[in-house]
Every structure is written in C-alpha cells, then in structure tokens.
C-alpha cells in the first residue's frame, strides 16, 4: 500500500495513489508491503533507490545506516505483536532527503500507529524531514518504555504469586500451577529480549543522526541537538531498565524451577509416606494369609478381629508419628 501525506495550511491530507505529482509534492510517503510498481513509482519520483525486503533484514550497520544520492537511509527494528501471535521484530526503513520523509515497512506495529496518530494531531511534525525522523524515533522509544513497564508489572504479579506468604504448606505447593507461570516467565523474557534488540537499533540510529558513527557532524540546529541528546539518554536508561528486567526474569525462572523441584519432591514424599503407612498392614495380612497347618490363631475365635486391630494399629501408629514429626 502506498500513501502520501501532504500538509496544506496546517491541515493533513492523505492520498492513495502513485501519480508522479502527488509523490513529488508529498511531505511524507509511507510504503506498507509495497508492490514492485509502487516501489518503482517512488524511485522514479524521488530519483533514488528503495531497499528490498532482504536488504532491510540484514543486521550489519553498513546495510542499515548509510547515505546515498543525497539521502540518508536508516533502518530500525520495532517490536510487533500481532494478535494471538508471538512478538517479533519488524524492520522499518526511513529515507530522509532534504525535502521528503519516506518510510518502508512490511508490518504495522503499534509504534507506527502511534506515530500516525501523532502526525494526524500535529501535521507540522512532518514538514521538515529530520523533525519527522526524530518524532518517529521518540514515538518508538515511548512505545518500548510502555512495553517494559508492562513486562515489569507482569513480573511483579508473578513474583507475588510465586513467593506468597501463605504458600508454605505442602498442599499449596502441590496445587500451584507452576507450568503456567513458567510459560508466562518465558513470554516475558522473549518480549524483553526483543525490546532490547529494538533499543540497540535505535541507539545506532540516534548515533548515525548525530554524526557519531561516520565521523562527520551534519548541520543541526540547537533544538535538534537537544532532542538527539535527550533521545540517547532515554534509550540508555531503557537499556539499563531492560537489563534489570532480564535479570529479574532469570531470577524468577530459577525460582520457578526450584519450586517445581519442591513440588515434585512433595509428591514423592506423599507417595513414600503412603507406602510406609500401608506396608505394616500388608505384612500382617500376608502373614495370616499363609496356608500352614499349624497356626494357632487360625482356629481362635478372636483371631480375625485381632488381625484387623493389628492392621489398623500398624497403619495409624506410623501416621501419628509422621504427623508429630511434621512430615505431613
């Protein structure tokens, strides 16, 4: 899909079409899973090349951050969470020229939707291409911060359930659904890892914009320099927070595995105690089940009640002893 955004008298106008005049006059061109014809139309209108999907997926910085034909190419990775699917990273390439801002993507992450809403509310942010890039990166950083906050809140709930003060009895430990907790911890770890990858790509993009990675410093006004520095500080703080969350996830993972071991041991203990309790009655029953001729109790009229009493006592006494020692 190809959309062009125009700012006229402070108002935003969106057109869908690949006519040469529309593309050349647009302040922002958005390509979402474009067809080869749409790619060609943008290349013809702007006199530059549009990266392929394979080129966008490359991980080396030289393929993600470079200047060509007077345009800057910046590829970042955003966390995308399609409904009922695992989170994944979606590459978004920004092409910045002196007059226009172009975005190329093959997914529709939430951060991009938030940026579109921001543009719709304040169209002037795309009047200057570098302002548009900075606004987009700031929106992505805000979205990653929301994701990390969501992860942190979820981990707090998991920790509360895992280390509940009343979860000291064997019954509670056995009944707790630790497998479901393990899956939740795994999902949190996966999401935190992808958020970290996104933040690292943003770090490289911010450094590229400030001219730190290619050794030159492009002309920037004071406001842009301040925004870049603030952006870099925010990214650094989020990386530190993400590292803390990953360490907390590892701690909860180890604790959960320890609880699973305790749970299994509790089950084995119950089975072992049950075996010990029923072993003496089984022994008594086996003794009097033998078919020897000379057994005095066989012809005694109180022999059967005596055997029943012996089996009950041999089961009750171990149970009472285990309860007294606190093993049950």
Automatic annotation (TrEMBL):
Subcellular location: Cell inner membrane
One Pfam family per UniProt: CorA
Any one of the GO CC terms: plasma membrane
Keyword Transcription (UniProt): no
Principal localisation: membrane
Listed transmembrane segments: 266-290, 302-322
Signal peptide: none
Gene3D superfamilies: Magnesium transport protein CorA, transmembrane region
UniProtKB keywords: Cell inner membrane, Cell membrane, Ion transport, Magnesium, Membrane, Transmembrane, Transmembrane helix, Transport
CDD domains found in the cross-reference section: EcCorA-like_u1
Topology in membrane: Multi-pass membrane protein
Protein family (similarity comment): Belongs to the CorA metal ion transporter (MIT) (TC 1.A.35) family.
Entry protein name: Magnesium transport protein CorA
Organism per entry: Terriglobus albidus
């Amino acid at each position: 899909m190809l959309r062009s955004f125009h700012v006229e008298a402070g108002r935003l106008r969106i057109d869908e079409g690949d006519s040469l005049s529309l593309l050349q006059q647009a302040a922002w061109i958005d390509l979402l899973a474009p067809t080869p014809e749409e790619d060609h139309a943008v290349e013809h209108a702007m006199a530059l090349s549009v990266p392929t999907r394979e080129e966008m997926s490359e991980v080396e910085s030289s393929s993600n951050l470079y200047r060509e034909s007077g345009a800057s190419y910046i590829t970042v990775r955003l966390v995308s969470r399609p409904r009922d699917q695992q989170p994944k990273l979606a590459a978004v390439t920004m092409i910045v020229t002196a007059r226009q801002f172009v975005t190329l993507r093959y997914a529709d992450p939430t951060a991009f939707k938030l940026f579109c809403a921001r543009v719709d509310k304040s169209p002037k942010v795309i009047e200057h291409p570098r302002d548009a890039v900075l606004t987009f990166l700031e929106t992505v950083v805000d979205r990653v911060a929301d994701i990390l906050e969501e992860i942190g809140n979820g981990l707090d709930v998991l920790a509360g359930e895992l280390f509940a003060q009343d979860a000291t009895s064997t019954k509670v430990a056995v009944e707790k659904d630790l497998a479901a907790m393990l899956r939740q911890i795994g999902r949190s770890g996966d999401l935190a890892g992808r958020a970290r990858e996104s933040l690292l790509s943003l770090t490289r993009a911010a450094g590229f914009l400030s001219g730190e990675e290619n050794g030159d410093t492009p002309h920037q006004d004071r406001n842009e320099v301040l925004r870049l520095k603030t952006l870099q500080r925010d990214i650094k703080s989020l990386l530190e927070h993400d590292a803390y969350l990953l360490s907390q996830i590892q701690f909860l993972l180890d604790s959960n595995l320890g609880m699973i071991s305790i749970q299994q041991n509790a089950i084995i203990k119950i089975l072992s105690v049950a075996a010990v309790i029923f072993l003496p009655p089984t022994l008594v029953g086996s003794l009097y089940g033998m078919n020897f001729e000379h057994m005095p109790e066989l012809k005694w009229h109180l022999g059967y009640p005596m055997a029943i009493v012996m089996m009950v006592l041999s089961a009750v006494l171990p149970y009472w002893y285990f309860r007294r020692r606190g093993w049950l």
